[in-house]
């Protein structure tokens, strides 16, 4: 069998996978965002993860928005968003649309893998059913579904898609072999399983564990701050115990940690379980920026600066360091809140693709001498040199934590 893979959704997850796969297979990179496809065709990645050279395609691989180009594919990989609604319940509209799309071109013996973050059962009980509906084929007989959770960490060059262990799950030995061939061209480390629900569970609980650990650090940070106890020194001392796990406090944004606990909790609820521990991490992490707001205002006042006159600069607005992504950014929420109180509050983030985020003018560069105080919200590597200079000239400066 000649494998003809296609990736549906060319975002932070789909594009790196596609770029790896297209080195070995004639691969179709499909996105329904025509602008995204056009810019990728020109060799430009608005997410700033890849250079023009890296976006140069080998073989007969293509970027496309045309469903006709998917007709010959026999191995689909779906990497579209799985956000939550305002009330934090799972929003599967992008998944539904993708299944609708694939259903139109699905053929006998095709395989459809999902990489988006799910709760247990979405692949087999939701996606497979939709694919059946739109293709009129039968799952596990005429076509097969699989799940391979994505562990990619944007902005992290060390744990790129080719260097991390990938869980690959699908039923049937033959399908596992085909999946191994495809994913084996992405990374050498694969954990194969024929239990899809276990793979779905594994992904979501990895993120929950991290969210809870950061939540715990955030809570301890608050207590230390209020009691004038140095948090970093406390952690250094605690880390001398052999089984202490070190995590940093932080503003946990993005679309994984702030979303995944809700996916799992909604699944647990269906099983009659109220997840109190899992959601407690989210509760504290969602409100951490409010604590930071009070802390910053208090510290600015301790500098005896006038909030109506002083020129202050914020560094970084994205949801975490070294990424261009602003979605679910608590740095942005914090900035907006401070802006109501501080008249001359500028913000600089050279990594952001957009120049403006809803009425906020974002500077690409800045002159240190224009500001009396610099607040470092997101520690992008690109700021390192300037921060050294700021510290050298004894300019007033605050790190968030
Ligand atoms: N970004 C991460 O760090 C990360 C890490 C691990 C897992 N995930 C999960 O992977 C999934 C994708 O996340 P992402 O960050 O890559 O999202 P993204 O928003 O960066 O990219 C998604 C892409 O899918 C496209 N798309 C949406 N609907 C489509 C459709 N019907 N047909 C074709 N294309 C469509 C969008 O235009 C977009 O380009 C989510 O479930 C997320 O939770 C993300």
CATH architecture identity of the largest domain = 3-Layer(aba) Sandwich
Query: Major sheet, described briefly?
Result: 8 strands, mixed
Low-confidence segments: none
Spatial strand order of the main sheet: 3-2-1-4-5-6-7-8
The distinct bound ligands, ions and cofactors come out as: nicotinamide-adenine-dinucleotide
The counted number of beta strands is: 14
Total DSSP helices: 11
Determine the mean pLDDT.
95
Structural domain count: 3
CATH topology of the largest domain: Rossmann fold
Q: What is the string of SSEs from the N terminus onward?
A: EHEHEEHEHEEHEHHHHEHEEEEHE
Radius of gyration computed on alpha carbons: 23 Å
Roughly how much helix do the residues carry, as a percent range?
A: 25-40%
CATH class of the largest domain: Alpha Beta
Task: Output the CATH homologous superfamily of the largest domain.
Answer: NAD(P)-binding Rossmann-like Domain
The global form is globular
Strand content: 5-15%
State the oligomer: single chain
- Structural category: alpha/beta
- N- to C-terminal separation? 55 Å
